[in-house]
Design goal:
This protein starts with 21 loop residues before the first helix and ends with a helix. The chain is of the alpha+beta class and 253 residues long. It has one domain. A hairpin with a 2-residue loop joins β12 and β13. Helices cover 15% and strands 43% of the residues.
């Protein structure tokens, strides 16, 4: 069984990992989107090549290969051609790191990062400008869920993006994940604001806690409260507020 979805706005693009025939997937994607994916891969790995042999993989110069995932794929026309925005992830790296993290093995930050890649492409298919940035430089693992364009100050600048994603973190006695809605400034290449919408955490003695979160804006910050638990935390921050993961995971009941 194959899983596939693509949208020009916010749906996740899942590249095949189930032995689908390469020609099948190129036909399903269409020539325009296949070319857009090839351009993104050239930006992420200039010396790599895209392989469509059943699984869609990035072939590395030294002979290795990585499965690709492009969540949040956006492809929009503009006055000079088109704008392509997507996250780029390697799911096998994330799966391996998560197995180790869940048993409190030491896993370094950025073991399985998400990169956000933007490209302005001319009408004849050439990349005029590109941007390649880390989504969350402090996360061990990050997993993008969706990307939306959130506005643009000037026509010659990269847009701001609204990104939903999950990040995984660890400390000496706790591991956990936080789901975020973040405002990303692609021009500045950083997250300028983010609010948690859910968390999961596990302590070293095996106690697990999970909850959905709601936020109430205050004059000096945000009050977070759980939907199912008695989690409550007031985070002091100036607008726009960028909450840190351990402020959530350390405060969980």
């Amino acid at each position: 069984m194959r899983s596939f979805a693509i949208s020009f706005t916010t749906s996740i693009l899942l590249l095949p990992s189930s032995g689908a025939a390469a020609q099948d997937w190129r036909l399903e994607l269409g020539a325009e989107r296949v070319r857009a994916i090839e351009l993104i891969v050239q930006i992420v790995s200039p010396e790599g090549t895209l392989g469509w042999e059943g699984d869609v993989v990035l072939r590395l110069p030294h002979g290795g290969r990585k499965l690709l995932r492009l969540p949040g794929f956006v492809q929009l026309p503009n006055t000079t051609g088109q704008l392509i925005v997507t996250a780029v992830e390697y799911p096998e790296d994330a799966s391996d790191a998560l197995k180790r993290l869940r048993v409190f093995d030491t896993v370094a930050a950025l073991t399985a990062p998400t990169r956000v890649v933007l490209a302005k492409v001319s009408t004849d298919g050439r990349v005029q400008r590109s941007q390649n940035m880390l989504l969350d430089a402090a996360a061990i693992i990050s997993e993008c869920r969706s990307i939306q364009l959130a506005g643009q100050r000037h026509a010659d600048e990269w847009p701001q993006l609204r990104v939903s994603y999950r990040s995984w973190h660890s400390d000496t006695d706790v591991i956990g994940s936080v789901d975020w809605v973040a405002l990303v400034d692609a021009e500045l290449q950083r997250v300028i604001a983010r609010t948690p919408t859910a968390f999961w955490r596990k302590t070293r003695d095996g106690i697990e806690t999970a909850d959905l979160l709601r936020g109430t804006e205050l004059p000096t910050g945000i009050e977070l409260h759980g939907v199912r638990t008695d989690f409550r935390r007031t985070v002091q921050c100036a607008a726009p507020c960028r909450i840190e993961p351990m402020a959530v995971l350390r405060s969980a009941p």
